[in-house]
Write a structure and sequence with these properties.
The protein is mostly helical. The protein has helices at 3-16, 23-33, 39-52, and strands at residues 19-20, 60-61. It is built from three helices and two strands; from the N terminus they run H-E-H-H-E. The longest helix is centred in the first third of the chain and has 14 residues, at 3-16. The radius of gyration is 12 Å and the shape is flat. The N and C termini lie far apart (32 Å).
Length: 64
């Protein structure tokens, strides 16, 4: 499975669980798919966001 397919699969699982990720995260995923950044950059982004939120979830429940 290519990285692009793996990301699509992972994001699909999140959506099926009625959750969504931030637009910032989706932008990073697209950059990673294109090879502009590495997955380590995404990990660092999530670590920093989690730290700033004081440990709160960065996933939001989708509103119907």
């Amino acid at each position: 499975m290519e990285k692009s397919q793996a990301w699509d699969f992972a994001l699909g699982i999140i959506k099926v669980d009625n959750l969504r990720v931030s637009d910032e995260f989706l932008e990073l995923v697209e950059k990673e798919k294109k090879g502009e950044i590495k997955d380590e950059n995404i990990k660092n982004f999530l670590d920093e966001k989690y730290r700033k939120l004081g440990g709160k979830r960065w996933l939001k429940v989708l509103k119907n």
